[in-house]
Amino acid sequence: MSKITSTLICLIAFQLGHAQFKSSELILKNGNKLIVLGKIQGNNFKYKNHSKDKTKTLHFSEIDYVRIRYSENDIKTFKYFKITDTEKHKVLEEIEKGKVVLYTTSTNGYVNPFGAGMQRIAYTIENYYVKKQSDKEVLHLGSNQLFTKNFIEGASSFFEDCIELVEKIKSEKFKKSDIVEIVKFYNTHCN
Question: What region does 8 belong to: left with phi over 0, alpha with psi -120 to 50, or beta?
């Protein structure tokens, strides 16, 4: 490989690595606020004050929340929670706010159902988590995949203080795919 090709590959890799850093606002648990360039990596937040600075890392347990600007009109909020009935903690994206807050995680990937060399099929798995404002932990309510835990049972139990909503879930007027509408309904129609 020539020196020019090697240099070009290194420059492209460097640019791609830095392109992932987005304008971000960190609110730390101690109340401090940082405006930085950053990205989420697992349960850590990697950031720098300026593009040429050395990267620093904070574990999400030290962060109250992070807002990341992906574009002018696309700002996402991320928080770190313990998952109910597990020892796991996860960084979750806030989707809907109110008396009940809806969070999600997304996993993207590809599968080759017909073997190597054949067309790959892209997939996205969305996992849904909910919590009432007074709760310290989030409850996993399932995912957009066919085979997950019993959504009707889990959602009916979580929203048990709103009989009208539980009836809509049990009669399947609201299904797992309607999770955003379910949370909105609870926040606007239930006490």
Answer: alpha
Give the CATH number of domain 1-71.
2.30.30.100
Q: Is the pLDDT of residue 44 over 90?
A: yes
| CA dihedral of 109, 112, 118, 119, whole degrees rounded to 10 | -40
Question: Please, what's the b/e burial string for 144-183 (b: 16 or more CB within 10 A of its CB; e: otherwise)?
Answer: beeebeebbebbeebbeebeebbebbeeeebebebbeebb
For residue 147, the SS3 value is coil
Average pLDDT (38-59) is 93
Give the domain ranges of the chain: 1-71, 83-191
Nearest CA-CA partner of 146 in 125, 117, 115: 125
The residue type at 2: S
Q: Is the model's pLDDT at 180 over the cut of 90?
A: yes
Residues 76-121 pLDDT 10s: 999 999 999 999 999 999 999 999 999 999 887 777 767 676 777 7
pTM of the model: 0.81
